[in-house]
Amino acid sequence: MKRTILTIDDSRTMREMLKVTLASSGFTVVQAEDGQHGIEVLEGMEIEPDVIITDINMPRKDGFQFIEEVRADASRRAIPILVLTTESDAEKKQRARLAGATGWIVKPFDPTKLVDAINRVAA
Amino acid sequence: MDAMAEIRQTFFEECAEQLAELEAGLLAIENGEADSDTVNAVFRAVHSIKGGAGAFCLDDLVHFAHVFETTLDEMRTGRLDSSEKVVKIMLRSADALADLVTAARDGGTADAERNAGLIDELKGLVALAKGEEPPAPTAAASGGSTDGPVYDDGMGDFDFTPVAVDISDLMGIGGDNKFRIVFKPSPRMYAKANEANRVLRDVYALGEAKVSCNTSEVPLLTAIDPEGAYLTFTIELSTAEPEEKVREVFEFVEFDCDLSIEAVLDEPDGDIEADDPDIAEILARIRAAPDGEPAPEPAHEPDEEAPVAAKASQPEPEHAKAAPKPAAPPAPSAPAAAKADAGGDGKGGASAGGAAQTIRVDLERVDRLIDLVGELVIHQVMLSQRAYQAGLARASDVAVGFDELEQLTREIQDSVMAIRAQPVKSVFQRLPRLVREVADISGKQVRLVTEGEWTEVDKTVIERLADPLTHMIRNAIDHGLEKPADRLAAGKPEEGVVRVAAMHRSGRIVIEISDDGAGINRKRVKETAIKKGLVPAEANLSDEETDNLIFLPGFSTADKISSLSGRGVGMDVVKRSIQALGGRVSITSRPGKGSTFTMSLPLTLAVLDGMIVSVGDQTVVVPLTAIIETLQPKASEVKSFGGDARLVQVRDTFMPLVDVARELGYSHDLASATGGVAILVEAENGARSALLVDGIQGQRQVVIKSLEANYGRVPGIAAATILGDGRVALILDVDAVVATSRVEGNFFNSGMKHAAE
């Protein structure tokens, strides 16, 4: 069965880029536009995504809040969450980690590394 | 378009949106209306641009955006205040960023010198912000302790009893670097969906590894916490990779485990794999966990998988097969994916707060729909006309049905046209930057006020509105407003106001550009016009006529006042480009109070207000915007000059009389001037002619059909349309006809002079 990735990014460019990259690697991609939307999409999914990839800086609900909210539900602790972050943001990595992120991908991402990272965390 | 090109286009579209947001936000900050949401939005805009630019390797853009973002971050954290000076630098940086985006899109180059200067200024601001407050150690640097005791891992003292998993006899790809790694996952690690076995697999991939597992902490089954973590792994790794690579493996988990990585100089001690309890026994203990319970923790997995992974001694975990490596960037299936995204993306744009639902549709599709609706309207009219000709009673139910159908089709037409309509905001939002630049160069203080930015008009009109609008604003600041000192002297505030307002008025969009400057210097305008021979020295002109002299071709080319106007564009060009859109422009001015330019444009270029005229046995449409007046020439007003050239006298001037039937090849003979109607038209360049036609049928709105797209270019014909009765009518290209009639300009000019005498 195709694995499903939920991507959350407020940038249309990033969403499309993730979609194209992931779809061409055989993943099913579900998209959300910010943390709040991400929660809504997640609630609406019949089967939990295999991996969630989320941006940090987003309107309404940022990536940290999103991750915390997901992790607050014990049944969702097993969903790997990768954070998309820019290189210089060591502080953000740290905060994402504290919020419960599984790993991170550096923006701009190398498609091969992105898929590697997903394979590293996805069951 | 391949997927990458499509994403690239999306990127630039998004950049435009972000730049607009950036500017709007900065302006709000400048006006002191900023809250933290605004500052965040501004930051995010630059951040987004940087993110996308990175993906396309637009290094200049990334670099600039990065510095800009860093500075904005200082403002976001409150270390940098939003004083006027700071915001000014940021506004200029936003302009520079916009230039970089444009350069990246169109392949041009941006002003590297200015950008370098701005980068220094931005960095200066960061330094300033940091200097004001003692350089707070940004967590960025430390990244260290995560000691949020979120989870209690329930560990007491432990007795280290390692379990050896010997893989040394398997294919080794070891190297000279040897490390001893002690890795003790905490429950936190599992709570973040990381797993020890995956980490170990990555370690195996690095080289030759011996892993031993200390299971001494595993409690009795009854005491096992399903979410606990009880194992400690000790790894002796021999690898060709440097320490960073080893640390990288633990990158995701290093703060959620106890980890030590030490370079080992000697051969690893042999004591680790010595006296271990039987691994099978431990596995049995763990597997005995009650069914239905979640696995205690994946602690058993390393044991299970280690041999597998080790045997293969290569990084590929088996499930990696399920997800083939991406064949480099996007595959061909991608456009469809992107398309689907575009369609399914219907959730309101994040910036709009999720309120308005929008979809993005290709313009081509909309145009096709507009075409089809146009056809529908025509067929509906034809159908009812034929039914009446066939004897349908006006009072019949069918006739009522026709009326309703007509009403409905008109409504559909209007609604479809509305799809193409966009608020003029997209043009208006470029204006603040323009005003800033022009104000800077001209040394004037200017406040821009915009009104009616949500007024909607057809997309093509919007696109072509920018140039004339830009020029008029430049003109308003450059020529309209006075220097600050002069303003003070005139009892006005130093800061001048340029107001741009859009509104709908009788089926057209009207845009007014007004300034509170000195108004038109009529004396000077008239002198200039006389000097250039545009008006006779003795001409007696009204104020309005004098003001409108500035639109005459050749008026504004000479003694240019400032560098701004050095672009060789005069108001005549502005007027022409507005006329090309089917628009009109005029000026009113009050000395000392300022001037107002008013331009009015059709709401769409898909339909046109036309005068329907008869020419021979044909019906021709003359665009209403070109028509000045119509008249019936008297024999005494028409003068013939050698051959077929004729002039018609209109009050005190003469102009060429163009026989349209002959011009278009409908007839060989010169029509009698007195039998028809003369339509006075003005071409875009201001040249006037009188068009002789047989009669006027009426005035109506027609749908423009491109002749070039459906047939071919015909000189003298701009386009075609289909009339209500289904007949095709040609729309006259007034410019071309007027130009032909004035080909021998000198002849006519001299002729006119003679005639006038």
From TrEMBL, chain A:
Q: Which Gene Ontology terms describe the biological processes this protein takes part in?
A: phosphorelay signal transduction system
> Which Pfam family, giving just one, matches this sequence?
Response_reg
Q: Which PROSITE patterns does the record associate with it? A: RESPONSE_REGULATORY
Q: Does the keyword Phosphoprotein apply?
A: yes
SUPFAM superfamilies named in the record: CheY-like (SSF52172)
Looking at the UniProt entry, the stretches that span the membrane are: none
Name of this protein: Response regulator
From TrEMBL, chain B:
Coiled coil located at which positions? none
- Signal peptide location: none
Protein source organism? Jiella pacifica
Feature: compositional bias, Gly residues = 343-352
Region annotation (Disordered) ranges: 290-355
Q: Which InterPro entries does the record associate with it?
A: Bact_Chemotaxis_CheA, CheA-like_dim, CheA-like_homodim_sf, CheW-like_dom_sf, CheW-lke_dom, HATPase_C_sf, HATPase_dom, His_kinase_dom
Q: What is this protein called?
A: Chemotaxis protein CheA
Top-level EC class: transferase
